[in-house]
Write a structure and sequence with these properties.
heterodimer, A: alpha/beta, Rossmann fold, eight-stranded mixed beta sheet, 24 helices, disordered C terminus, B: mainly alpha, MetI-like fold, 2 domains, 14 helices
């Protein structure tokens, strides 16, 4: 790190940051002390509302106009940033760089990418052969196959992953001493995330740049960072070297985070997740003592008194008066474990949803020229061939990258965008493709939970009114009876009866998603389709929702079709998994078979891309080149051959692969013989086989 | 782009056919009989009938419409009932005057309004912002005949700098007419100013808070360059549309302003024609006005696309 006597690169001293809302200032960050040495990769972890992005923006001196550092000092190379003159501030800006969460809005829509990178090299905006060469060099360094083309493009013409590479190229073009990454991969696919993280790791290693990596994902931090600071409700609660934090978390909140994250290889039939109860306090209504006390499983009377100090512990620091008890094992900081009550899968039960050879095309209009030339009409082949079966009381997980056709499949199954071909059977009875041609009974049996409950709930209607509707319309109940059932339903999703009179704007994200789930259950469906329904939630909230879904399924025997890009979540909830690529199932079978070798090379790449919650993990990295091809031009032969790391040769390009069955029900759509796959593939993670409540390993 | 233009021009043609029908029907519905208007109360029944057949008014309506439309297309816009002059010559001369006034108005209004809007946004919620908002809003509320009269009072009667009467003679060149144009243009500017300035301010504030501004600042780019090279270009997109559309209004909608200053533009020609039930003139002015609006809209779309790389015209 830094030599003795020399100031650290970055130093936060007792920093508080407030935002103005109307006339009131509320402190989003309070009393943060943090030191970041040159060349260190520091992780800043927390859920939404923790203040982690605020802290990063304050360090870069780019807080939004209504935000201000109200107390304390941020120093850079020993100089207080608040005291810099405008010219010094510009020099500071040139020595730091930011890679933000949303790449597209961070690029000027009206200027070409190349010019925007050149401006880093020369902030006066003049362009010459030297700046142009540098821009191309940077685009090349971040792995762009065709830098010239990218430099000449406008931001909206690039994919999300490419846009993020452009921002990284931009950040590194100025050779910064400090690089701040604010959730740079949150909106990207795991496969893209993995290549971006590889890139950051490599670029940082070569340049000895200090990195502040802001993330909500413990896995990403474990893969990348030397040291981690955990923020909760605007306070630093723990700070330690990564290994130490992951092996021996000292703060109950850190422990709670670990307990909430579903790990690859655990399943709800083996263990239940342990969510953190309650919700993060808002800056305007903080508890008097420790901020985490209201949600803490080991809080005692003293915790309610005054704010605990940040005490040195091991090689780090922790803000909890009971940390010595935790470390010595005298108290159990885990959220009380609800042992999994879900019965093991009984296998052969009847199917509640049977989808065969589903196909969905969006035809493109032919232009006059194309019509005259007699060219055939082209179509976006969003879904090519998907056959799935959901069994009573069981969950089928559907996974794949964005652009694989997952959401189109969901919408086609529930009839919102009717399928072009294929049959859909619910409880053995065929249903019409279009929603408006389905009977009330068919609609009642097949319901959907959307990704964003914000958009799915009518903001002007109370929760009670929203939930009464399916009872009245689909079950034909009287008003009084419907109201009674709403109260029961709210209890089932662990909300109190008074929620019936609230409106969506008064609810938190997790509460809204509970209401959306309650509504879909109101009709007592046989099958529920979930489209990324837990993706937008913080892990501690997500864990509670996953447990809820699991217990509701156990009570009611509903079949789930669970669509997600998050393989860890799918592996937790699903009994069966289908992997889709370019609108086609490439592997399907029981979850524990699909997620272990032998698997389809695409599944292998997906699994290999997932960050593990283990800083010490060593594993082979399979990385995918490029992006999912356009659904307008699906490759011939095996659709995956253009990106396949195990590409055999012409056969993959020319012929559609055979379905290979490993054991009962597990099928792989690949040219490579199973024995070869088995011989060459390593398991991506360790599978848990024990059953019942146990202490979660934190490694 | 070429195909886009072709399609839009076809659409424009359709619009014109439709509005010509509308205008024809409306003028048919106007109270009063053309022949009686022309010949006066005392005319004999025989004279009236003779004139009607001479004008073709005894033919069925569809035939009248089609022959009128055909004449228009051929360039024969008819003869004014009240002046006996060629409608075409009359309208084109006035159109030219209106274009001059519209051009000058935009030349004054746009730079002023944009500057005010940008400054107000850059100093959001400071006294400058408040002053600009207050001033522009209080002006926009005043009707044109008030602001026009105040301007005349100050600049013509008190200071004697500019003429109060803008009734320029036909054939006057632009520079000779310029002094007469300034006051009407200023009055029209005051109508547009607040609207354009507030629009510019609002879109500037939206753009200033976009993350790409932060990206530019973090490059170490000077603030002035951030505003000019990054923000302005994006912020002016909505303004461009509004300005182009307001061009249509300036050509034919300045009825009050032209009347206050006695300016011989299309607006005044229209009031003149209506007062005299001069049907061929009303029809021609109305059609030219519609064409002006339609072209202004097309121009707005083209300009918007030209400045916005996210839009390709197809």
């Amino acid at each position: 790190m830094s030599a003795p006597g020399e100031p650290p690169l970055v130093e936060f001293v007792d920093v508080s940051i407030a935002y103005r809302r109307g006339r009131r200032w509320s402190r989003a960050v309070r009393g943060v002390d943090l030191r970041l040495g040159a060349g260190v990769t520091y992780g800043l972890v927390g859920e939404s509302g923790s203040g982690k992005s605020t802290l990063a923006l304050a360090l870069l001196q780019v807080l939004p106009p209504n935000g201000r550092v109200v107390e304390g000092t941020i120093r850079y190379r020993g100089r207080a940033l608040a005291e810099l003159t405008p010219a010094e501030l510009r020099a500071f800006y040139r020595s730091v760089a930011l890679v933000p969460q949303d790449p597209l809005p961070s690029l000027n829509p009206a200027r070409r990418v190349g010019r925007q990178i050149e401006e880093v090299v020369d902030p006066t905006g003049s362009s010459g052969p030297a700046t142009r060469a540098r821009a191309l060099e940077m685009l090349h360094a971040v792995g762009m196959a065709d830098p010239e083309r990218v430099a000449g493009a406008y931001p909206h013409q690039l994919s999300g992953g490419m846009q993020q590479r452009v921002l990284i190229a931009m950040a590194l073009a100025g050779e910064p001493d400090l690089l701040v990454l604010d959730e740079p991969t949150t909106n990207l696919d795991v496969t893209t995330e993995a290549t971006i993280l590889d890139l950051v790791r490599e670029l940082v290693r070569n340049r000895a740049t200090a990195v502040l990596y802001v993330s909500h994902s413990l896995g990403v931090v474990a893969e990348l960072c030397d040291r981690v600071a955990v923020l909760y409700a605007g306070e630093l609660v723990e700070d330690a070297p990564t290994r130490e934090l992951f092996e021996r978390p000292r703060h109950p909140y850190t422990q709670g985070l670990f307990d909430s994250v579903p790990r690859l290889g655990t399943n709800r039939r083996l263990v239940a997740l342990r969510p953190i109860p309650g919700r993060i306090p808002s800056p305007s209504s903080l508890p008097p003592g420790c901020v985490f006390e209201p949600r803490c499983p080991i809080a005692i009377e003293d915790c309610r008194g005054e704010q605990p100090p940040l005490e040195p512990a091991g090689e780090g620091a922790v803000r909890c008066i009971r940390w010595r008890d935790i470390e010595a094992g005298r108290v159990d900081p885990h959220q009380s474990a609800t042992p999994s009550r879900v019965a093991p899968s009984t296998g052969e039960v009847d199917a509640v949803l049977d989808v065969t050879h589903l196909r969905k095309q969006f035809p493109l209009r032919r232009s006059l020229n194309e019509l005259l030339a007699g060219r055939p009409q082209r179509a976006v082949r969003a879904v090519e061939d998907i056959s799935v079966t959901v069994r009573r009381g069981h969950t089928l997980g559907l996974v794949g990258e964005s652009g694989s056709g997952k959401s189109t499949t969901a919408r086609a199954i529930v009839g919102l965008d009717p399928a072009s071909e294929g049959t859909i059977e619910v409880v053995g009875e065929p249903v019409a493709r279009a929603l408006e041609r389905r009977s009330q009974a068919a609609i009642r049996r097949l319901q959907m939970v959307f990704q964003s409950s914000d958009e799915a709930l009518n903001p002007y209607r109370t929760v009670g009114a929203t939930l009464r509707r399916p009872f009245r319309r689909l079950a034909g109940l009287s008003r009084a009876e419907a109201t009674r059932r709403v109260t029961e339903l709210l209890q089932d999703v662990q909300l109190t009866a008074d929620f019936a009179s609230r409106r969506p704007s008064e609810l938190s994200g997790g509460e809204k998603q509970r209401v959306a789930i309650a509504r879909s259950f109101a009709a007592e469906p046989e099958v529920l389709v979930f489209d990324e329904s837990v993706s937008g939630l913080d892990v501690s909230v997500q864990a509670a929702i996953l447990n809820l879904l699991s217990s509701l399924q156990e009570e009611r025997g509903t079949g789930y079709l669970f669509i997600s890009h998050d393989l860890a979540v799918v592996s937790f909830l699903a009994d069966y998994v289908a992997v889709v690529y370019l609108g086609r199932v490439v592997e399907s079978g029981p979850a524990e078979r699909v997620l272990q070798p032998p698997y389809h090379p695409y599944t292998e790449a997906l699994l290999s891309a997932i960050p593990l919650l283990d800083p010490a993990a060593k594993r082979s990295h399979v990385r995918l080149e490029g992006e999912v091809p356009s659904a307008m031009e699906v490759p011939s032969g095996c659709p995956f051959h253009t990106r396949c790391p195990r590409y055999l040769g012409d056969i993959c390009r020319d012929q559609p692969p055979p379905w290979r069955e490993t054991t009962d029900d597990h099928d792989i759509y690949c040219h490579i013989p199973l024995d070869e796959l088995r011989a060459e593939q390593a398991p991506a993670f360790r599978f848990e086989r024990s059953r019942g409540p146990e202490r979660g390993e934190h490694g | 782009m070429g195909r886009f233009l072709l399609r839009r021009l076809g659409f424009l043609l359709l619009t014109m056919v439709f509005t010509s029908l509308l205008i024809f029907l409306i003028t048919q519905a106007l109270p009063g009989d053309v022949a009686r208007i022309l010949l006066g109360r005392e005319a004999s029944r025989q004279a009236l009938d003779q004139l009607r057949s001479q004008l073709g008014l005894d033919r069925p309506l569809p035939v009248q419409y089609l022959s009128w439309l055909w004449d228009l297309v051929r360039g024969d816009w008819g003869t004014s009932f009240s002046t006996g002059q060629s409608v075409r010559a009359l309208v084109l001369a006035r159109l030219w005057n209106s274009l001059e006034l519209a051009g000058l108005t935009l030349a004054i209004a746009i730079p002023t309004a944009v500057t005010l809007g940008v400054v107000a946004a850059l100093y959001e919620e400071s006294w400058i912002d408040t002053a600009i908002s207050l001033a522009s809003l209080s002006v926009v509320g005043l009707p044109e005949f008030i602001t026009g009269l105040v301007l005349i009072q100050v600049f013509s009667f008190r200071l004697g700098w500019l003429p109060a009467n803008s009734s320029i003679a036909p054939g006057t060149g632009f520079f000779a007419a310029l002094p007469s144009l300034v006051l009407p243009a200023l009055t029209a500017t005051l109508v547009l100013l607040a609207y354009v300035a507030r629009l510019t301010r609002a879109s500037m504030l939206v753009e200033l808070n976009r993350p790409y501004v932060r990206t530019a600042v973090l490059k170490g780019v000077r603030w002035r360059r951030v505003v000019v090279a990054h923000v302005l270009r994006n912020a002016l997109l909505p303004t461009i549309t509004v300005v182009a559309i307001s061009f249509g209004w300036l050509i034919s909608g300045l009825i009050v302003v032209e009347n206050v200053f006695n300016y011989p533009g299309l607006g005044r020609l229209l009031t003149f024609a209506i007062a005299r039930r001069d049907i061929p003139l009303i029809q021609a002015v109305a059609l030219v006005a519609v064409l002006g609006f339609a072209l202004a809209n097309l121009l707005a779309d083209i300009l918007y696309a030209a400045f916005n790389p996210r839009i390709t015209l197809r």
